[in-house]
Amino acid sequence: MLIAKLFRPRAGLRPRSARRVALYLGLGLVIAISKVGKVEGIKACVWRRHPAVLYIGKCREVEVAIPNALDEADNLVEALAKEIDKEPLNLSRGVTLSLEAVLGPAELGIDIGIYSDEKVPRALGITAELAAVLAEPRGISATSL
Question: Which of 26, 28, 75, 112 is 20 to 30 A away from residue 135, measured at CA?
Answer without folding.
Answer: 75
